[in-house]
From TrEMBL:
The keyword Iron-sulfur does not apply. Gene3D superfamilies: Vaccinia Virus protein VP39 (3.40.50.150). GO terms for biological process: methylation. This is Methyltransferase 23, arginine. GO terms for cellular component: cytoplasm; nucleus. It comes from the Eukaryota. Keywords: Methyltransferase, S-adenosyl-L-methionine, Transferase.
């Protein structure tokens, strides 16, 4: 089973489901339009049985406690706001509840903040995954013509 947090258009989750995962998509419980995007993305990609739940970072809604055992939690571009400790609170909770699960995330380096201190605070370890391992370091995937830093990282 795979849960995507802050899923929005839900591409990684959709790929996981197309690969056979039982998929749970989530986005902020305060953003019905984003939850609707999750549903529409599942439908547009011909997926049935995708569950969509409101999950605001840092909160533990009852639906979260009812999820089956998770194998993977996905997060695509969920560390865009420097106030991202709530994301890690949610991840720490999910990984404690599902000790065999892993959190896979990609993010864009937009500023010079570091996640290190917060990982220690929440007793989380991380491994950086070099994009060239799966040929994803191409300019059209990991580059941008916009000003500023736009490096993509995966961990
Ligand atoms: C930068 S977008 C990334 C969307 C999508 N994962 C992607 O890669 O295209 C951030 C997503 O996080 C969601 N989000 C923002 N604040 C949130 C919160 N407090 N709790 C849960 N989701 C949140 C937004 O609604 C949005 O879908």
């Amino acid at each position: 089973s795979v849960l995507q947090i802050g899923a929005g258009v839900s591409l990684p989750g959709v790929v996981a489901a197309r690969c056979g995962a039982r998929l749970f998509l989530s986005d902020s419980s305060e953003k019905p339009s984003c939850l609707q995007n999750c549903r529409r993305s599942g439908e547009a990609n011909g997926l049935s049985g995708v569950s969509v739940l409101g999950l605001s970072w840092g909160e533990v809604p009852p639906d979260l406690l009812l999820l089956p055992e998770l194998d993977v939690v996905l997060g695509s571009d969920v560390f865009y706001d420097p106030e991202f400790e709530d994301v890690l609170v949610t991840i720490a909770f999910l990984l404690r509840k599902n000790p065999r699960a892993r959190f896979w995330t990609t993010y864009q380096v937009r500023a010079d903040w570091s996640i290190e201190v917060l990982l220690q605070r929440w007793d989380l370890d991380c491994i950086l995954v070099p994009l060239d391992q799966f040929h994803a370091d191409q300019p059209e995937l990991a580059g941008s013509s916009l000003p500023g830093r736009h490096t993509i990282q995966m961990m």
